[in-house]
Amino acid sequence: MTPSLDGLLVYLAVTNLALGLFNLLPAFPMDGGRVLRSLLAMAMPYVRATRIAVMVGRLMAILMAFLGLGGNIMLLLIAFFVYIGGRGELEAVESRYVLKDIRARQALNREAHQVYTSESIDKVVDLIMTTYQADFPVFDLGSNFVGVLTRPHLVGILRTQGREGRIVDSMIPAQNVPVVDPETTLADVWDRMMEEHSRVVAVKEQGRFLGLLTLDDISELIQVMGATKERENTRATQPSTGSAI
């Protein structure tokens, strides 16, 4: 039997309505979960509201996965998306919360090592073995910043040329390295790295090179400062135990 045009239109309308209602379930990061976070954020900090919305979303994901075990592959896929997507959103919100008050200038490592175009890869290998640094600013003999040698590029040159390879042949030229102002917040620096798929940014003030910020630097700050802020927030929300006089 060939379906009529009216029947097809009714079917599409009902399907779209069902999808719209499904999307309103409080399963973050779907729209319903975002609405829940917005409502919660009216009464509590944004990060905490996100955590609660993500927790509710995970419970919904577990429920959907349980229902999907009966053979509904689509429901299982949605449950997976909700669980993974919520965790990613929470990590992004927590990262921005930690980094929004820190400036690029404050995060620079004043004791970072630098290398020169005239040196061999062997020098960098020695530095990596004796320090925790993995990415190095490269200077020419006139002390001008000309590039960056990152860990992935170092591994690549070691595989093709060995320790005798030259730094100048494997570095990222300075014009290809993202540049930020020293007063840029680390939240914006992080976004810049993600947008340009770069593990490093150069911090410059009026054209003068001040130092490098790397993904490793920012990841470490997220962990350390995140723990500090979490402790501060916990203490702020705890009731005072002082005795009334």
Write a structural description:
With 245 residues, the chain is of the alpha/beta class. It has 2 domains: 5-99; 104-223, CBS-domain (Roll). Helices cover 58% and strands 11% of the residues. The protein is built from 10 helices and 7 strands. It has helices at 5-23, 31-41, 46-68, 73-99, 104-107, 121-130, 151-160, 167-170, 186-196, 215-237; strands spanning 115-116, 136-139, 145-149, 172-173, 179-180, 200-205, 208-214. Strands 1-2-3-4 form a 4-stranded mixed β-sheet. Strands 5-6-7 form a 3-stranded mixed β-sheet. Helix 3 runs antiparallel to helix 4 (73-99). The termini are far apart. The model has no long low-confidence stretch (mean pLDDT 83).
List the helices and strands and how they pair.
Blueprint (H helix, E strand, L loop, with lengths): L4 H19 L7 H11 L4 H23 L4 H27 L4 H4 L7 E2 L4 H10 L5 E4 L5 E5 L1 H10 L6 H4 L1 E2 L5 E2 L5 H11 L3 E6 L2 E7 H23 L8
Parallel strand pairs: 1-2, 5-6
Antiparallel strand pairs: 2-3, 3-4, 6-7
